[in-house]
Design a protein that fits this description.
Length: about 250
C-alpha cells in the first residue's frame, strides 16, 4: 500500500498574525513558516502505518512556493520516503489543491490520502472532502483513531455530539484530528538524511490543473481589541455588576 500525505506550509502557530496596512491580507514577509500542525499528525499516522507493516511507501506532497521545499524536508526528516513539490506562486485555493492531489494520487497509484482536518491559515476544512468527491473514494473526516483491517479502515470520528465509529473501504481519503497521535520530532541525523531523499518538482500546469484564484479578498481587518476587565472586591460586588449589566 502507498500513502500520500498533503503537507501545507503555513504561518507558524506561535506567530501573532499582523494584518497588512492596505487590508489586502496578512503579513508573511519575514514571518516564521512551518508545517500545518494537523499535517504533522497526518505524516505521523502514515509513518505509524508503514512501521506496523501496513504500507510500503509514504509520499509527502506540498503545493506552494519554492520555499515549501522546507516543509517537505521536514516531512522527509520525520520519515517520509520521498516528496513532491507542486510549485505555484498563486495562493492555491482548496478546490485547486484537491484537483492537484487527485492528479498525484492517480499518477502514483496510492491507496490512501491523509490530510489535515484543516489548514490553520485559511481554516477552510474543504480539501479532503473535495478530494474524496473528485476521486470518488470513501472519506473519513476528523479522525481520532484508525485501524486497517481486510481492505477497510475502522475509524473513530470526532463529531459535535461526541465520537462516531464508522468503517470505510480502501482506497480512501482521511482527514486527521488533533487526538489521533503525537507527532514525532525529526532528529538531527534524520534532518541530515532528509537532504538526500528524493524530492521531485512539478508544476500545476503539468498536472493539467488551473490554480488561478476563484475568490477575491475584499478586505482583511484586525479583530476588535478586547476591552480591559475590572477587578471586583467581593462576590456581592460581582453579583451587583452582573445584575446591572443585565439591566
Ligand atoms: P483546508 O481545506 O485548506 O483547510 O486544508 C485541509 C488539508 O488539506 C491541510 O491540512 C493539508 O493536509 C491539505 N492541504 C491544503 N492545502 C495544501 C497545500 N497547499 N499543499 C499540500 N496540502 C494541502
Amino acid at each position: 500500500m502507498k500513502i500520500l500525505v498533503g503537507v501545507k506550509r503555513v504561518i507558524d502557530y506561535n506567530v501573532s498574525i499582523r494584518v497588512k496596512s492596505d487590508g489586502s491580507g496578512v503579513e508573511k514577509d519575514g514571518v516564521k513558516m512551518s508545517m500545518n500542525p494537523f499535517d504533522e499528525i497526518a505524516v505521523e499516522q502514515a509513518l505509524k502505518i508503514k512501521e506496523a507493516g501496513g504500507a510500503d511507501e509514504v509520499i509527502a506532497v506540498s503545493i506552494g512556493p519554492a520555499k515549501a521545499e522546507d516543509t517537505l524536508r521536514t516531512a522527509l526528516a520525520m520519515g517520509a520516503d520521498r516528496a513532491i513539490l507542486v510549485e505555484s506562486t498563486d495562493e492555491v485555493e482548496p478546490l485547486a489543491v484537491a484537483k492537484i492531489l487527485k492528479a498525484v494520487a492517480e499518477q502514483e497509484s496510492v491507496d490512501m490520502v491523509l490530510v489535515g482536518k484543516q489548514a490553520i491559515d485559511d481554516d477552510s476544512n474543504q480539501t479532503g472532502q473535495m478530494l474524496s468527491a473528485l476521486l470518488n473514494w470513501s472519506q473519513g473526516t476528523f479522525i481520532s483513531e484508525m485501524e486497517i483491517k481486510d481492505g477497510a479502515v475502522a475509524l473513530t470520528r470526532e463529531i459535535d455530539g461526541g465520537l462516531e465509529d464508522i468503517s470505510v473501504k480502501l482506497p480512501t481519503v482521511l482527514t486527521v484530528d488533533l487526538r489521533l497521535n503525537e507527532p514525532r520530532y525529526a532528529s538531527l541525523p534524520n534532518i541530515m538524511k532528509a537532504k538526500k531523499k528524493p524530492l521531485d518538482k512539478v508544476t500545476a500546469d503539468s498536472l493539467g490543473v488551473d490554480t488561478a484564484p476563484r475568490l477575491s479578498v475584499v478586505n482583511v481587518v484586525e479583530p476588535p481589541t478586547r476591552e480591559a476587565g475590572i477587578v471586583v472586591s467581593s462576590v456581592a460586588e460581582l453579583a451587583e455588576k452582573i445584575n446591572a449589566a443585565r439591566g
